[in-house]
Amino acid sequence: MKRIIRLFAGVLVICASPAAMAQSADGGMRIAVVSMETQRPLEGVTVTVSDSDGDVITRRTEANGTAELSDLDAGLYVVTADGPGLIAAREPSVRVVRRKVTPLNLEMLARTEALRAAFGPPDRPAADAMSGPSVADGGAVALHALRQTVGDDRFFAILRSWVAEHAGTSATTDDFVDHASKIAGEDLTGLFMTWLSGTSVPEQYPVAPPA
């Protein structure tokens, strides 16, 4: 009798195995989202995963900055992450394979307004924020606004002459504003006040002059 029960149990295991394998055949994805500036996990970020058929799955990151998805068919997926005060991140081609969890790490940059609210305007950072995210972001934003305002020729003339005159020396933001105004042939103080000194910035960059 014991032998019959053992044989019967063995048959059940054999029969159940294909079903168990079928259930675990799908893949998964573990998405970790962190701040680009601080490398800290970002909670409450909306993560959207879409496949080639247009099917969409949405999750929110937990306190540890992760969102996990299971039962995904093998194939390629597009992953996007979005959240308040953050610039959306996108990974256009994430491959999921069967029986495996695919890890994906995303870094998200705070929007200019959020950075300035947290760290202050980039032209007058605190001593402990001289290399902070507001300075890096704000400098790039202001330079792009300058380029859009004066055009490529004058913009690169400003940069080349600035480096030639100040290489190996110290200079201030005001020095650069004066230099840019001189090379451009117009007073750019107002431009830099708007894009570098403000606690917020315009929604659109200046329109570039005709080439």
Topology:
Layout: H1 2-24, E1 27-35, E2 46-50, E3 56-60, E4 66-72, E5 75-82, E6 89-96, E7 101-108, H2 112-119, H3 133-166, H4 173-184, H5 189-196
Parallel strand pairs: 1-7
Antiparallel strand pairs: 1-4, 2-3, 2-5, 5-6
Strand order of the largest sheet: 3-2-5-6
CATH superfamily of the largest domain: Carboxypeptidase-like, regulatory domain
Helix percent band: 40-55%
> Uncertain regions: pLDDT < 50 for 5+ in a row?
1-24
Please outline what is shown here.
By secondary structure, this protein is an alpha+beta fold.
Question: What would you say this structure looks like, in words?
Answer:
With 211 residues, the protein is of the alpha+beta class. It is built from 5 helices and 7 strands, in the order αβββββββαααα. It folds into 2 domains: 84 residues, Sandwich (Immunoglobulin-like), CATH 2.60.40.1120; 84 residues, no CATH class. The strands form 2 sheets. Strands 3-2-5-6 form a 4-stranded antiparallel β-sheet, with no helix packed on it. A 3-stranded mixed β-sheet has the order 4-1-7, with no helix packed on it. The longest helix has 34 residues.
Please name the defining characteristics of this protein:
211 residues; Immunoglobulin-like; 4-stranded antiparallel beta sheet; 3-stranded mixed beta sheet; 5 helices; 7 strands; elongated; disordered N terminus
